[in-house]
Amino acid sequence: MRSRADRSWQEISQTLLGNPQDASLRIAILAAHPDDETIGASSLLARFPSAVVIYLTDGAPRNSKLWSPDFRGTREQYASLRRVEAERALSIVGVSPHQIHWLGAVDQEAIFNAGDLAGSLTEVLATLQPDVLITHPYEGGHPDHDSAALIARLATLQLDQEQTPSLVEMTSYHARDCQCITGEFLALDAECVEAFIDLSPAERERKRNMFAAYASQKLVLSSFGSDRERFRRAPDYDFSRPPHEGKLWYECMGWPMTGDQWRALAAECRARREYACH
């Protein structure tokens, strides 16, 4: 039996982005943080209101300097705020709280628990059995984005063939000469064909309303446009290599994680998962 993951990108993109869309298609979005799903795939959430959103982290780093400058409270209260904002934003496209899953990692720390997170994601996917899983590319923009790409790959490898969804990417952000690039993918090879949706005026307004629901992220979201959303089939990344030459964006930002450290932790995680499967 041919698995869903074996379908060509042409088949996937026509089914996912076609007009009219296939209402029977089951999609899941693995977002590193609350708001990433809106940045990358607001149009698909509106097209497929039965979609499931899976958040890798709670959106609340331990370092309070990385929180909204207007927030006063504990990390747990900030995580609760991020959850409320996510539910409010997703309600705009008809996604209910029952369609939201939280894997529970601390923002910026997903790689430290990647093996367990991959196991949890495997269980969620085995239960939901989506046709398509949409997540972040491996681009060095945020360590949690890269962890989502890794964890999605590890989780889908653990599923039975007939349960394996097609793995698709949405845009996030990455560095180019220590400048943040949003709304486009890091260039790979010619085989990574992109598909895109140009948002209509109504769709752009809806995306802006979803952004507005994430009031704590107002400064961050001001860097992202609302005109076009891009997608591509996830390539088979070599997570032992940097995604691009030069500094990664989170290194440019001076965050605690470095690319070398992330790749070492990713290698340990993959080795443990491979050992457990033998």
Structural overview:
The protein is about 40% helix and about 15% strand. The chain contains nine helices and nine strands. The two termini are about 25 Å apart. The protein is α/β, with parallel strands linked by helices. The radius of gyration is 18 Å and the shape is globular. Strand 4, helix 5 and strand 5 form a beta-alpha-beta unit.
| Structural class by sheet pairing and helices | alpha/beta
Biggest beta sheet attributes? 7 strands, mixed
The N- and C-terminal alpha carbons lie at a distance of 24 Å
How many helical elements? 9
Please name the defining characteristics of this protein:
seven-stranded mixed sheet, alpha/beta, 9 strands, about 280 residues, two-stranded antiparallel sheet, Rossmann fold
How are the SSEs placed, and which strands pair?
Blueprint lengths: L8 H9 L9 E5 L4 H12 L4 E6 L17 H17 L8 E6 L8 H15 L3 E4 L7 H15 L8 E5 L2 E4 L2 E4 L11 E5 L2 H13 L4 H4 L6 E6 L15 H4 L6 H18 L2
Parallel strand pairs: 1-2, 1-4, 2-3, 4-5
Antiparallel strand pairs: 5-9, 6-7, 8-9
Helix pairs in contact: 2-6, 3-6, 4-5, 5-9
Short description:
The chain is α/β, with parallel strands linked by helices. 38% of the residues lie in helices and 16% in strands.
